[in-house]
Structure formats: structure tokens, C-alpha cells
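Subject line: Sequence and fold of a protein, written as C-alpha cells
Enclosed: The protein record, placed directly beneath this head.
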Amino acid sequence: MDEIRDILKELATDLVLMKETQKDAVLKSQQEWKEIADRFRETDRRFKETDEKFKETDEKFKAAALKSQQEWKELKDQFRETDKRFKETDEKFKETKLFVKEVSKKLGELGNKMGSFTEGLALPSLSRILQRDFGATHIFPRARAVRQDRSLEIDVL
């Protein structure tokens, strides 16, 4: 019986030790679970921070893209306006060129008329002077000569 008592005592002591060990293991396990939960909370907090930063960056990209689109639209509008003005200027230049051509032609015609008018006034007097003072027997008004790309016009020959 003493032996049984000793065995029971030993078993009781072992049981107390096992309970204490189990209690320590549970406490340690609870501490570890608490640390794991804290780490998960910290990771979750960091994910939320990162998500917020992504949202901010996304908003900045959207704002930059919108600004870029607006600037591109303004630039295209400016190009259209410049192109329109170039076309208007080109049209005015063509009109001016045509006007200058017409004025030049009219001035040439006017010059010819003035020359013809002057010749008509001077020819009778000049013919008399050439016959009387120089003994000219042949008088040719408006003699013209053309050779290659050169020409010569003489009012009285």
C-alpha cells in the first residue's frame, strides 16, 4: 500500500507539474496568438495605408491626365486657329497678288496709252523737223526689232 501511495503521490505530483506545464504552454500559446493577432492588425493597418496611398496616387494620375487632356485640347484648338489664320492669310495673299497683277497690267496699259498719246502729239512736229532740218525722206513711227530674248522699240526711225 505504501507503494501505491508513493505511486499516487508521484502521479499527483506529475499531474500538478503537467497542469502547470500545460498552463504555461496555454499562456505561451495565448501570448503567441496575441502577438500574431497584433502582427495581423499591423499588417492590415499597413495595407490600408498603402491602399490610401494608391488611391491618392490614382487621384493624382487622374488629375494629371485630365489636365493633360485639357492642355492637349487647347493646343489642338490653337493649331486649328493658326491653320485657319494661315489659310486666311494665304487667301489674302492670293487676292493681293491678283490685285497687284491687275494694277500692273492697267498701269502698263495706261503707260502705253500715254506713250501713244505723246507720240501722236509729237509725230507731226517731229516729222516736219526731220524732213526740214535733216532731209529725211522716209519716216517710220514705232519701229520694233526682236532678237532672241531681247527687243528694241524706237518711236520714230
Remarks:
- Residues 2-134 form the longest helix (133 residues).
- The CA atoms of residues 89 and 95 lie 10 Å apart.
- Helices lie at 2-134.
- The chain has a mean pLDDT of 88.
